[in-house]
Amino acid sequence: MTLTDTRTTSDNSATARGTVPTALERVIGTGEHQAIGRTFILSSLLLMAISAAALAVGGLTALSSGGALDLSDPLWNSALVAMVLMGAIGLLLGLAICLVPLQVGSAAIAFPRAAALSLWAWLVSGLIFLVSIPLDGGVGGSKLEGARLGMLSMGSMMVALSLGAVCVATTVLSHRPVGMSLSRVPFFSWSMLVAAPIWILTFGSTTAHVLLGQVSQTNAAGLALRFEAGVSWFLRAPAVYMLAIPVMGIACDIVAQACGRRITRYSTVQALIGMYGVFSFGAWTQTSGGRQNIFWIAFVVLAAVPVLGLLGLIADTLRQQKPEVSPGLVGVLLAFLLLLGGLLSGILEALNTTGSGTLFSFEAAGLGWAQGVFLVSAAFLGGLAALSAWSRVVLRASEPRAIVFSAIAAGLVGGGLLGTVFLIQGLTGSGLNLSFYNVWVAVSASVLALSALLGLMMALVTSRGNSAEPDASGAVVSGAVGLTLEWASTELSTQDQALLMSAIVGSPYPLLDFRSAGEPVEEEN
Amino acid sequence: MSDTATLSPPEVAIPTDSPQVLLVPAAELFPTMPRRRELIFGTVFVTAGVAMGLLTLIGSYIATRDAAGAAWLADNQIALTQPNMQMLTMLMSVVTMQWAVWSICRDDRYHTYLALGVTLLLGIAFVNQSTFLFKEAGISITQPEGPLFYAVTLGHLAMVMAGLIFTVLMAFRTLGGQYSSRQPDGINAAAVFWYAGVALYSVIWFAVYIQK
Lengths: 525, 212
Fold this sequence. Notes:
Number of strands of chain A: 0
CATH superfamily of chain A: Cytochrome c oxidase-like, subunit I domain
Largest sheet of chain B: none
Helix content of chain B: 55-70%
Radius of gyration of chain B: 22 Å
Order of helices and strands of chain A: HHHHHHHHHHHHHHHHHHHHH
Number of helices of chain B: 6
Distance between the termini of chain B: 45 Å
Largest interface: A-B, 55 and 56 residues
Structural class of chain A: mainly alpha
CATH class of chain B: Mainly Alpha
Oligomer: heterodimer
CATH topology of chain A: Cytochrome C Oxidase, Chain A
C-alpha cells in the first residue's frame, strides 16, 4: 500500500528493531509535514539571502565596469529567478506545508512522501542552480555547460515546487473535517488552494520550455534566447502576480487574529482572492503578441481590483475593532504596499502598451523588472509576517519581536528601493547611466539579503527557544489568540483538543466558536 | 491512503449562528471511512501540470512550423495510416478504461481485471505503434524539425507510459482488495490520467500529423 499518511512512532519498524535513527536520518527521512515545512522555510530564507546577495554583486560588477543598469545581465536574471523560486515561493510553500494541514484539522498532509520529495528535490536543484551561476551559467550564461546546468536545475525546482503545491491543494480539498465546506476554509488555506493550480500550470508551461531548450539548443546563446522567449514571462505581469496570492490569505487570517473577530463578508473575500488568482494566470502571454493586446491590458489592470477590494475589507475590519499590533500585522500590511508597487508597474506598462509613442514612452523591460522585484519582495515580506504571526505553531515558541521588526523593516526598505530603481528605469525610457543607480541596486539588494538573514536568525532563535505554553507565552499576554484550528494544539488542553476535533465545524472560525461554546460543554460533561 | 481517516466532509446544512451545533460529535453522525478522493484530486493536479507542459510544446511546434512554411518536414514522409490507427487505439482504450471504472463501482472484480488488462494491452500497442511510426518517418534529431517533433511526441509517449505504470499499480492494488465500490479512487484516478493522455493525443494527432 502506498504510504500517504505519516507513520506513527509505534509502527516504525526501525524503532521496533531497536535501531534508533540519527538526527540527520530523521530530518531526511521524515514525512511529518511540520518538519518538512520548517526545513523548507529555513532553507528558503538562507537561499533568499544568497540570491539577493548575488544581485548585489551584480550591481557592484556593473558599477566597476562603469556601465548603465543592464537588465539583460545573466547574473541579474539568475538572481531574480533564484529570489522567486528559492526565496519567495519556497518560503510560502514551506509555510503552507506546515500550516495548511493544521488549519483544516488534519494530522498529516496529503501524500507526505511526495511533500518530502518536493523539499529535497527543490533544495538540491536550488543548490545546483546557485553553483551554476559562478560557472557563467545560471540563466543566460555564456558557457554551455553552466547554462545547461542552470536551466535544468531551474526546471527541476519548478517541478519540485509544483509537487509540493499538489500536496497542499489536495490537503485542502480532501482532508477537511466534517462541516468545513470550502466556504469555511481558513483564508491562508483558501489562498493556497487558489495559488496551487496557478503555480502548477505556470510551471508546467515553463518547464516545457526548459525541456525544449535542453533538447534543441546546442549553444549557450540559444539557451539564453529560449529563456528570454519561453520562460522569462513568468517573472512579469500578469504571471508574476501569482506570488502574492498566498499573501492575501495570510493578511486576512492575521487581521482576524489581531482583531480577535471574524472577517465580515467571508465569501466575498474568498471570491476576491479567487479573482486575483484568475488574473494572475499568465501562461497565455508568453508570445510577444500576447503582451500587446487588449486581454493583456485587461488582466494587468483588473488584477488591481481584488487587491483594492480586499484592502477595503481589511480596513473595515480594522476600523471596527482596534487590532493588537504585532510584527505579523505590520509586516503583512507593508507587504500590500509592495504589492501595490508591483501592480502600479503593471498598470504603467499597460498604459504604455495602449499609448506607446503617443502619450507615453516607457521602457517595458524596466517596468517588467519592477513588477518582478516588487512582487517577490511582497511575497517574501508576507512570508516573514506569516512566520512571525504563526511562530508558536510553526516554530513552537513566540518570536523575538525586535528581530522580526528589524527583518520586516529591512525587507520593506530593500524590496521597496530595489523595485523603485527599476520603476525609474522604466519611466525614464532609457538606460540609467549614472553609477549611482548601480550603487542603489547593490545597496538595496544587500538590505534585502540582510532581511532574509534576520528572518533566518529569528527562525533559528525561536525554534531553539522554549515551547510555548498557552498561559505563559508573550502572544497570549498581548491578547492575540488564534481563531482557527491550527492554534488548537498550542492554546487548548489535550482534552479540549479532542473535543474540538470530534465536533462538526460550524463556521470558518472553529476555535472562536469553541471558546464561546466551551463552557457549557464542560458543564455538561 | 489512510485507513483510519475520516470521510471527507459532506455538505451538511448547519446554521452558522448556532454555536451549539458544534457540540455534536462528528463521529456519532458520520462513520469512520477511508479518506475519499485524495488520490483523484492529486492526480487531477498532476495531470493539469503535465497537460500544460505538453500543450506548451505543441504550441511551440505549431508556431515554429508556421514560421518555417513549406520547408517544414519537406524531406520526410509521415503516412497517416499509423497516426490514425494510434488514435483509434487510444479511443478504444477510453472505452475499456471506462469499463473498468464502471465495473469497480459495481464490485464486478472479474470485469475490472479484464478491462484493465485490455486497456494495458491497448496502451502497449500504442507504444509499439509509436516506435514503428518514428522509424517509418525517419526524422533525425539533428534536422531542424527533430527536437520539436520528438519533444512533443516522446513527451506524450512518456505520459502514456506513466499512465500504463499507474494503471498496473492500481490493478495490483485492486487485486489486493483495496478498491471496491466503497473506495474506487485508485481506478478513477488512473482513468482521469489516461483520459487526459488520450485527449492530448487527439490534439497531437490533429496538429502534428493531420496538419503536418
